Amino acid sequence: MNPIEKLSKIFGNFPGIGPRQARRFVYFLLNDRRGVAEELRESLAQLKEKVDRCKFCGRFFATEQKKKICAICADPARDESTLLVVARDFDLEAIEKSGTYRGRYFVIGGSIPLLSETPTKFIRSRELLAEVERLLKKGLKEVILAMNASPEGENTAAYLEKILKKLLSHDLKITTLGRGLSSGMELEYADPLTIRAAIAGRQSQI
Ligand SMILES: [Zn+2]
To answer: 82: closest CA among 93, 68, 94, 95?
Structure first.
């Protein structure tokens, strides 16, 4: 495959980018005289060197000193009795920006497509269970499932509920975000007030 085709194919795999747009990106880089391609190369190298996945919550964070735990998980002021589970890092960022939630997070890394027979391929469910077990020892009382209000989001929440119910010998409550999030709403785009209402209106699943 020639280099133009190859890079177009890579850009084409990005979310929301079609083949035409992907090709435009490549020609943009070829035509650019400001050094964007070089910056991109450096930036990509830094992503690998200076960004890590938090050992506890699974989110990506920039770290100079090769720390293993992110600032949220390392903050002793955060409430350890609630764990809020989101699909992606930017959902966590949206909730964090709303300033409503003071507990712990977990990023499962995606959502499960409808009718999937291999749910574990799409989300970090084993890691989630390990983190729930770890926090149970520290007084975890509630797991909040904050998935998008989409069919995939609901499918994912149903699966998580099923696997979390196995831990119910512990005194653990499972809740989902309230209907403040309208159907089809993505957390990423929800405004702080909506997020606040959804967290306040969360509903128990058990
Ligand atoms: Zn963390």
So the answer is: 95
Distance 28 CA to ligand 1 centre (A): 37
Q: How far is the CA of 179 from the centre of ligand 1 (A)?
A: 27
Q: How far does the centroid of ligand 1 lie from the alpha carbon of residue 195, in Å?
A: 20
In three-state secondary structure terms, 58 is coil
pLDDT digits (tens, 9 = 90+) for 59-116: 999 988 878 999 999 999 999 999 999 999 999 999 999 888 999 999 999 999 998 8
CA of 47 to the centre of ligand 1 (A): 17
135: left (phi over 0), alpha (psi -120 to 50) or beta: alpha
CA 179 vs CA 36, 41, 84, 182: distances in Å: 43, 43, 16, 6
